[in-house]
Write the structure tokens for this entry.
Amino acid sequence: MAYITGARKQPSPSHFVGSGKLEEIAAAVHSHKAELVLFNHSLSPSQERNLEEVLKCRVLDRTGLILDIFAQRARSHEGKLQVELAQLQHLSTRLKRGWTHLDRQKGGIGLRGAGETQLELDQRMIRQRIKSINKSLAKVKGQREQGRRSRRRAEISTISLVGYTNAGKSSLFNVLTRSKTYAADQLFATLDSTLRRINLPNYGPAIIADTVGFISHLPHGLVEAFSATLEETAAASLLLHVVDAANESHTVFSEHVNEVLTEIGADVVPQLEVFNKIDLLVNCEPHIQRNEDGSPKRVWVSALTGAGLDLLQQAISELLAGTLVVGTLMIGAEQARLRSQLHAKGFIVSEVINENGNWHLQIRLPITELERILQQGARFEPTPQQVVKTAPEWSGDEHARTA
């Protein structure tokens, strides 16, 4: 294996690299007997074709490599469809070089070569297959939208995990939801959006979604092909931006992630940064960093050891719930269903029943939940200082803490 780098003001239209650098690459291919040359850039179809003619081996650009990795990682039917769509869109502009060994179209009537006919057949088959895949993905998109409507009707918030590939999103997802989704130390281990239900302290149930990892210069075709999956991110109530704190380039990676979020329209969704893998840092304890208003801005955790996960759940609850209300809620015996719902969401601190069979519930819940409950005929008596922020006492010292 050999690494060759170079600097050039603008790429060569024919070979991307200059003639001198091309000779250097060709010499390295010959000395290493290489069968594949990877370019960490996007190449045009003609550039790939010209490079292969000179180097006498297969040439793969950044987009092609990412598509190959995606093809190996896809597991669900939806994921495979999305990968195949992106591959076909990429391949449709690169069919010509596959038939250079056949006859080309000649001038005159009735002198059409076999190669041109085969090329046209392949192009038509690809167009038909792309149309079929888009039709299938449209059904998937409709199913996902139906699920989101159901969650909105049930007033269940959705939390979406986003971040650079291999930042530890799936590992964090597993420990938060006690699931066993596939997680590995490799690029794009997750391609399929997975949703699980969790119960948050002082908030109640929520849905958390694990999504595909991002990468710098993510091909636009992939963003289009994975639109059904990425819509889960754009429609979320809160984004958990998972960052590999042990990676020296995490600042640059975070910028790339935010660029993709802007591209898919998710830049307006509230975001909480989760700095993962603090077990690989020296003298870094789990903690919450807050902004000037005292709201959580960043949480330092380790999905591997479980350190800081309680702080993470606390921060999520704060951002989703906003202001909490503490007091006594009085409901009648006929409102047993409402009492059961409050228990299920963890809003009841204690309860007593009077001689008339009515319930006096000591509650701690978001003010939006209280407004909804009062519409059902319940009575509420606030305790002194009943409106509290879910955030603990905050000082500027904690805000200044860094790794």
